[in-house]
Each structure stands twice: as C-alpha cells, then as structure tokens.
Amino acid sequence: MNKKTISKINLFFSGLLGRMEENRDFFKDITIQFKSGTKIFPAKITQNDTITLDYQAVKRETDKNGLWDILAEEFLKYDEAKIIYTERGAKIVIDANDKKVNMRHEDAVEAAPQTSVVQTGREYVVNPALAKELLTEIGILAKNGKIKNDKIRKYNQIDYFVELMGGVLKEIGERDEYVILDAACGKSYLSFVLNFYLREILKKKCRFIGVDYSKTVIDASKRMAKNLGYNNMEFIQEDLTTWTPNVRPDIVVSLHACDTATDMALGLGIRSQSRAIVSVPCCHKDILKQYSYEPFEPIMKYGILKARLADTLTDGIRAAYLESMGYKVSMIEYISPLETPKNIMIRAVYTGKKSAKAKEDYENLKKILHVEPAIERFLKEKHGFKITMGEEHDYGC
Ligand SMILES: C[S@@+](CC[C@H](N)C(=O)[O-])C[C@H]1O[C@@H](n2cnc3c(N)ncnc32)[C@H](O)[C@@H]1O
Fold it and tell me: Residue of the nearest CA to atom 17 in ligand 1?
C-alpha cells in the first residue's frame, strides 16, 4: 500500500488506540490481516501494562508510537489489510487498500440462534447463546452449547436475580461506574452473569468485588475472570464478618449465603454504606435455635412448622433492622419454589431515613421472641454498631 493509504489508516488506527486505552476493561484485542495476493499474514495486538504485538511468531512489547512505527513499515509491504478491533460488545473493522480505506462498526454480540429459547419456556434476560463464551468458561454451558442439566436451576435462579436488578439500578440512579460487591460469592456465577448483563447488554461501566472465605472458590473465580479477560472483576479471600471494603459499594448482592452469612452480607452492606443491598437468603438456623413464643406453642410443637416459621421470622427481623438503619425494604418471591425453596429476595435501597417505628418494631420482635439476631450481634460485636435514632449518616447519596 502507498504512503497516502497508510496515513489514512493511521488516522483511523490512532482513534482505535485511544479507544483501547479508554476502554481498557472492555478491550479484548486488535487483529490485523496483512494480505498479499491470496496469502494472509496475521498479527495480534493485546494490552496489559504495555502493548504486545504478536506477529510472525515474535512477541514484542511496545507502546503506541513504537507500535505504529512497526505497523507502518509492514503496511508498505502488503496490498491490503483488514484491522479488527474487538472489545466486549463492540467490533470495529477497517478494510484498507490503495483504492479505499473504510471503517465500520459491527455488533460483536452474535445473533441468538433459535435454539436458545429456553429449557424452562421463559426467555432469559441473559440469553445463553449471546453469552456463550462466558457461560462455557464458568461451567454453565456444555460443549454442545446447551445448559448442563445440573446447572439449569442455578442458571434460572441467576437469570431471575439479574432481571430483578433492573429495578434496583433505576432506584439508585445513574452512576459513572457501578461498584458491585458479591458477598459469599462462591464460584461467582451471579457476578459473572451480572457483569455480562451490565457491560454487554446495558453497556454500563461496572466493577465487581467478590468475597468469600474459601480459597478454592476465590482461586477458581480469579482463574475464570483471567481466562475471560475481565479486568474489572476482583476476588478476595476474606471472612465477611470482619472484612471491610475500601470503596463504597453501589450494590451488595448475595445469593444463598448460608445461615448467618446472609446476616453478615446484609451487615456488610450497612457498614460499607451500600446504596442498595439485594440478598436471597439460604438456610435459617440462627433464629430457629433461639426463639420461643408461648401463644404459638401448639403450632411450634411440630418441628417442621417451627422451622418454617423461623424462616419467616428471620427475614422479617432482618427487614426491620434494615429499615431502622435507613433502608427502604421490599421482599419478593423472586422465582418459583419449584426452582428452589430458598426463593425470597430481600431488596433494600438506602434512603437515609432511619425509621423510629422500625427500630421499635425490631426491639419488640427481639423481646417477644427472646432472640438476639445475628445481624445486630455481628455488627455490635465486631464493629461496635448501634441503632441510633435522629443521627443521620452522611452517606453522600
Ligand atoms: C451456598 S454457597 C453460595 C455461593 C454463591 N453465592 C452461589 O450462589 O453460588 C455459600 C458461600 O458462602 C461462603 N461463606 C459462608 N460464610 C462466609 C463468611 N463468613 N465469609 C465469607 N464467605 C462465607 C462459603 O464459602 C460459600 O462459598
């Protein structure tokens, strides 16, 4: 190609490099196909701390200027070139030869094949066909592109969870970058799918912090994020009881954190001043072990009924505590009990208005049920937290 063509390519290409830097978290790679007759010579550009050019079996570390110097020399040697810039959710293609230099945008998200309309009959919010690379990496999809049988329920739960996040996002309002904290993240299925939803479907900038005290699941989550090139996700091996993030989360999410781990997740949301907390609790043992209520003795003598009542009491007590801490709470059955009996979702959005009524209700519940709820216990013992009325926290909402 001649110098005039190459200077046109340079104009487009420097725009791409600017975008690569700006969208560091989203950027995947730039590939170049140098063409001479019918032969194609590929090159690949990736970015970590420096820019790496992988060309003719040699990997070279360079910067933007150095990269262009090498490429400009190469363009001179070939008749045509195709440059493909890929970031999550977007693809830009430049076709260049001495007759024309064209740039066009393509949607990097493939069209969903018909087969992706779901095993449950419900249309997924994060359609597995669109998120194929992600769902294969995290072990939800089998090689044939179908959801693995033993993962269908899990995926359904996650997808419903993700769907309901739409309302929460609206309530907390537009943010430059959403910081989402997944408390008791396990293998972080929820975070990975939510990240895809925010970045690739809603096109929002976001950052994820997954916390779990199990090294195995944290190592697995880190590995999957690395394989997927998700630089905006970090995973931390810590105990929720004591760990405090160094950033104010926009949303603390928690899916099936066992027993009091849910209380710790809610507590973490409160003490880190999260703008919203969305939690689907798991088993409820703490209140079950403690509570008694004489008028209900004829019911509670049946163990199963005492346990079911304890589930409801536990979440009701959690809600009163959250309200007393300035959160507006809603409680929904977020998925059919056929998918999971652990199907109550607690959604709490920070309003800054601490409710005196909720504090009174909460204290009354404690008294009549003879309980010391875990949520308050942990906050008091580990973090010196008290419910104080009339004193507003400056949460900068
Ligand atoms: C049932 S798993 C759920 C994992 C994940 N949220 C999901 O839905 O797949 C519960 C997770 O809570 C974690 N966990 C329990 N107590 C914890 C604590 N105090 N601190 C951090 N992680 C905890 C466990 O290690 C486990 O990974």
Answer: 261
For ligand 1, the distance from its centroid to the CA atom of residue 384, given in whole angstroms, is 24
Convert the pLDDT of each residue in 335-383 to its tens digit: 888 888 888 999 999 998 888 999 999 999 999 999 999 999 998 887 7
Q: Kindly report the three-state secondary structure assignment for every residue of the chain.
A: CCHHHHHHHHHHHHHHHHHHHHCCCCEEEEEEEEEECCEEEEEEEEECCCEEEEECCEEEEECHHHHHHHHHHHHHHCCEEEEEEEECCEEEEEEEECCCEEEEEECCCCCCCHHHCCCCCCCCCCCCCCCHHHHHHCCCECCCCCECHHHHHHHHHHHHHHHHHHHHHHHHCCCCCEEEEEECCCCCHHHHHHHHHHHHHCCCCEEEEEEECCHHHHHHHHHHHHHHCCCCEEEEECCCCCCCCCCCCCEEEEECCCCHHHHHHHHHHHHCCCCEEEEECCCCCHHHHHCCCHHHHHHHCCHHHHHHHHHHHHHHHHHHHHHHCCEEEEEEECCCCCCCCCCEEEEEEECCCCCHHHHHHHHHHHHHHCCCCHHHHHHHHHHCCCCCCCCCCCCCC
CB within 6 Å of ligand 1 — which residues?
184-187, 189-190, 212-214, 217, 239-241, 255-258, 261, 264, 282
**Residue 291 pLDDT class (50, 70, 90 cuts):** very high
Report pLDDT digits (tens) over 46-76. 988 789 999 998 999 999 899 999 999 999 9
| pLDDT reported for residue 23 | 73
Q: What is the pTM of this model?
A: 0.72
Domains of the chain: 3-106 (no CATH), 114-383 (3.40.50.150)
The protein residue with its alpha carbon nearest to ligand 1, atom 13, reads: 184
Distance 137 CA to ligand 1 centre (A): 20
Say yes or no to pLDDT of 310 above 90: yes
Q: What is the pLDDT of residue 388?
A: 55
Q: How far is the CA of 377 from the centre of ligand 1 (A)?
A: 19
